[in-house]
Amino acid sequence: MRELLAKYEDKTPEIVFHWNDPETEAEGWVVINSLRGGAAGGGTRMRKGLNMNEVLSLAKTMEVKFTVSGPAIGGAKSGINFDPKDPRKKGVLERWYKAVSPLLKSYYGTGGDLNVDEIHEVIPITEESGVWHPQEGVFAGHFQPTDADKINRIGQLRQGVIKVIENPKFSPDVTRKYTVADMITGYGVAEAVHHYYDIYGGDIKGKRAVVQGFGNVGAAAAYYLAQMGAKIVGIIDIVGGLINEEGFTFEEIQAMYLNKKGNTLGGDNLIPFAEMNERIWNLETEIFAPCAASRLITQDQIDRMIDTGLEVISCGANVPFADKEIFFGPIMEHTDAKVSLIPDFISNCGMARVFAYFMERKVQMTDDAIFNDTSTIIRNAIQKTYDQNKNKKNISNTAFEIALKQLL
């Protein structure tokens, strides 16, 4: 696996598009690792301090993710170095998407990512730039459909991603009109844990869980884990956190989801971040779901969790460990050798899978069909890993080997 990984990481990306905004200090990149299958896909993120290397590593991550989620295309990513809280954000995004629209019409498909919203920003702004849908390039480059088929499938994709969830099994509150895009990634993170215990042995019910991050992914992961019977004992977010060593009830987690402030944990009784960041890693827990930003988790934090009984990690964040390597750095390798580590390209593939699902010809548009499809894809990936390595350790190592053999 090491040789395969080194070969893959060292491979130069096919296309690097570099943009400087003429009206602000914003700088952006599209990195297309390859045009495997005639196209590439990956979301658009924005944060202050982002650089091209971060975008490159995420593009390579996306390519590995497509080996699980489909379609069989190359990985890409867009990144803009700009403060997302700046009031000039909308103008930056408008000029960015106008600049990259030729790529989006030909061979590159994008979506939402960190600080860029799929429904309220990506879809309407790309439409203004003359793009039928942010995934149009994947249709054009990979599927190469007739115009009529392209119109039908784009219509299906448009409807599906913004579909309001009607089934109370999948929505914290059906009256608030949560969409598939709001919930599906966190759902996949929780389902990965459920399938892990089902395949490798054990029961998720009663297992204690710690969740890092309470944005779209972390909040939904906490909601679905609690729904499955796991006991959330700690949540840490950028604004602080909450601890209940007996485990919060499902109703309490549901209320936290409904009361979150944007992408952060709400409430007046939050433990300050500094105190929370010291205490949470010592909680007795079997499940850890890192769903905050990339490259945050240190080896000390992991070792403290292992000492208190950690069994499985389901990654909601891309590359959650504080390694400088693109994929498999020393902290991740150390963790993989000690506990069951489900890699990000399996556990957080929900949104990528939804795109792939709706690109197929005439699929069912029900909540059950959409969510069960993502669950099945994740289960199949974990089952393949188990079939090759029945040990509860080195799961990520095995999963990477399976994926890289498809790419090299």
Automatic annotation (TrEMBL):
UniProt xrefs under Gene3D superfamilies: Leucine Dehydrogenase, chain A, domain 1, NAD(P)-binding Rossmann-like Domain
Keyword Nucleotidyltransferase: no
Pfam families registered for this protein in UniProt: ELFV_dehydrog, ELFV_dehydrog_N
Annotated transmembrane regions: none
GO biological process: L-glutamate catabolic process
Domain (Glutamate/phenylalanine/leucine/valine/L-tryptophan dehydrogenase C-terminal) ranges: 181-408
Domain of life of the native organism: Bacteria
Signal sequence range: none
Family matches, as InterPro entries: Aminoacid_DH-like_N_sf (IPR046346), Glu/Leu/Phe/Val/Trp_DH (IPR006095), Glu/Leu/Phe/Val/Trp_DH_C (IPR006096), Glu/Leu/Phe/Val/Trp_DH_dimer (IPR006097), NAD(P)-bd_dom_sf (IPR036291)
Native source species: Dokdonia pacifica
Protein name: Glutamate dehydrogenase/leucine dehydrogenase
Keywords associated with the record: Oxidoreductase
Biological classification of the source: Bacteria, Pseudomonadati, Bacteroidota, Flavobacteriia, Flavobacteriales
Family: Belongs to the Glu/Leu/Phe/Val dehydrogenases family.
A GO molecular function held by the record: glutamate dehydrogenase (NAD+) activity
